[in-house]
Amino acid sequence: MASSGTEGTAANLLKQKRDTGSKSDVSEKTRFIEDREEEMENSGSTQGRSGRSNGGEEAGMEEEGSRERRGKCGRCADRCEKLFSCCLTSYHPLPAAPTWSDSCVHAVRCPPHGTAAQVFTLVMMVVLGWAALWAVTKEEALPGGNLFALTVLLVLCVIGGRLIQFIKLPPLLGMLIVGILLRNVPGIMVGSWINPVWASAIRLVALTVILIRAGLGLDPVQLRRLSCTVLLLALVPCVVEAATLAVVVHFLLDFPWLWGFMLGFVLAAVSPAVVVPSMLWLQEIGLGVDQGIPTLVIASGSVDDVIAITGFAVCLGITFTTGDLVFTIFRGPIELLMGIVGGILAGIFLWYFPSKDQKSLPRRRVWMLFGTGLLMAFGSRTAGYAGSGALGCLVMAFVAGFSWEDDKEPVEAMMADMWGVAQPFLFGLIGAEVDVTKIQPQTIGLGVAAIVIGCVVRMAASAASVSCAGFTWKERLFVAIAWLPRATVQAAIGSTALDTARELTPQDSTNKKLGIQLLAIAVLVILITAPIGSALISLTARRLLRKSTKEDSDRDSAIEMNNIGDCARGEDIELQVCSAEGGEHDSAERKYDGDV
Question: Which residues have a Cβ under 8 Å from the Cβ of 178 and sit 6 or more positions away?
Fold first, then answer.
């Protein structure tokens, strides 16, 4: 037993020895692996440091090279700056209280800035545009050519519109005066170089733009409320003035009755080209909007023109027996129906095309709207129903805008930009149609008397037509004033009777004489009513119309929201201060508890 115990003890000692040896081997292997890893890390760090040192040296060399290059350029720039220091605004800033001479000298210093830079940019745009036209068309862009005359007309009309705004008058008045001067000043006669076909087409394009803007600006609520008043205002003043003028010119100028009514309907047509921009201006500044006055005048204007053109066409047909008389009589209602139905269908089409998921939606809507309007305006004239085109454009824009609702504002903004280009062409070309040499001296006095009598009767009829609409006497007076300007229809159809007389009755000198007198009085009515009417609208609007309460409420709500926002921000600051103080108090308590 002793021997067995000794053997067991020896076995245990051998086992412990083997375990100790294996552990020592493992530890030696572990130390070897750790030593190898440390050597690899040291070598990697050494390589990294060497790489970084090499990269730093390269970066330093590049920086030195760039510094040398910048030094050369900088010295050159400094020399140039010192050389031209007399022309630089950085060396000669504008004084705190500059004189007129200081402002003029500072305006032309470099770099270009302010009004001088804007004027130079506009001049270069005009020069480059004319140069491009000359490169393409050659003679047409030189003095005496059609495109040269249109370019001069556009530039001078823009300048005239800007200048007349300094005396608080609408720009269209300055554009109209410029057009008249370019046609009638001896030695210039630029207006006579314009091709009549081009002038007619451009006027129709510009009229399409303003009618689309008018349709987008119509208020459906006010239009529904004033629907009967729209028809009365379109029908009563036109018919009453035409009948009055027929009687007056019959006794003053010995006009036959048919020629008298023909002249009456020519003069009775209100000009949407003059009235509509003024009404849009009223909508922008919020005058008469709550009462629906701009919407009433815009909507009635197109219907008034259709009635006047229809009456003129009926009298012309009876006088020269052109075409079927029965069809001529019913032509007016047919054109009204065509314009309304066509405008509604086109507007519904624009509800769905372009679709709302397309990109650049406002821009595509503008092109679809404008393209459809041009198709209706030119297509109706080609088909012989010119009156329906203007009404169709108005109805189409109104129906399309009714569906677009809040998305209509970008479209209106783009159409306003297009109107900025179309407006000078429209009124400049209308003014260029006025030929003073065709006005006979013996016709001027009696013609002016007839025009004044017709305007007085028209104002009374206009005020009576809106007497049941709930307007105050000031608002009725303003509607009567807004119904005065004439230009577009008179320029378009003023010479139609004379042209028809020359074509159908070339041997009848009486018809030619009557046609010349009719044209002369149409020119007179443009010269008298267009500038005076537009000026009266702009001067009397603030005194006769009431300010929109919607804008006041919007402004009050905006102020209230700003106050609420200020209060909310104040409460947030107080909460942040309180939370900060509470946090400091809690940290102090925790610190005290920890010390304890």
Answer: 153, 156, 157, 159, 160, 428, 431
> In this structure, what token pair is assigned to residue 563?
């106050």
> E strand or H helix at 212, and its extent?
helix 196-217
**CA–CA distance, 586 with 338 (Å, rounded to integer):** 82
pLDDT tens string for the chain (596 positions)?
444 444 445 455 445 545 555 445 545 555 555 555 555 555 555 444 444 445 445 555 555 555 555 566 777 877 777 777 777 887 878 888 888 887 888 787 887 878 888 888 988 988 898 899 899 988 888 998 999 999 999 999 999 988 988 887 778 778 888 988 998 888 888 888 999 889 888 988 988 888 888 788 777 877 787 788 888 998 899 999 999 999 999 998 889 998 999 999 999 988 877 888 888 888 888 888 888 888 888 888 878 887 887 788 778 777 776 556 677 677 777 877 888 899 999 999 999 989 888 888 899 999 999 999 999 989 988 887 776 887 888 889 989 998 887 788 899 899 989 988 998 998 888 888 777 777 777 778 888 999 999 999 999 999 999 988 888 999 999 999 998 988 777 876 777 787 778 777 777 778 888 888 888 888 788 888 888 888 889 889 989 998 877 655 544 444 444 444 454 455 444 444 445 445 544 554 444 444 44
Cα–Cα nearest to 244, from 272, 265, 270: 265
**Which tokens go with 120?**
């130079």
Cα separation, 191 vs 179, whole angstroms: 7
Radius of gyration of the chain, Cα coordinates, nearest whole angstrom: 41
Q: Which tokens hold the place of 558?
A: 């905006």
Q: 3-state SS of 254-285? A: CCCHHHHHHHHHHHHCCCHHHHHHHHHHHHHH
* Structure letter (DSSP) for residue 356: T
**How far apart, in whole angstroms, are the C-alpha atoms of residue 144 and residue 152?**
11
**379/563 Cα distance (integer angstroms):** 56
Number of other residues whose CB lies within 10 A of the CB of residue 175:
28
Token pair of 419, please?
């109107």
Q: Other C-beta atoms within 10 Å of 589: how many? A: 10
**What is d(CA 411, CA 362) in angstroms, rounded to the nearest whole number?**
6
Neighbours of 152 (CB within 10 A): 21
Burial string for 396-425 (b: 16+ CB within 10 Å, else e) reads: bbbbbbbebeeebeebbebbeebbeebbbb
Cα gap 260→247, rounded to integer Å: 7
pTM: 0.67
Residue 287, beta-bridge partner list: 547
Total Cβ atoms within 10 A of residue 381: 17
**Separation CA 157–CA 172 (nearest Å):** 9
How far apart CA 80 and CA 504 sit, in angstroms, is: 77
Start-end of H helices in 293-407: 293-320, 325-329, 331-352, 361-383, 386-404
Which residue type is seen at 365? R
List phi, psi (to 5°) of 88. -100, 140
Contact 448, 524 (CB under 8 A): yes
Residue 152 and residue 181: Cα distance in Å, rounded? 12
Mutual angle of helices 473-482 and 293-320, in 10-degree steps: 40
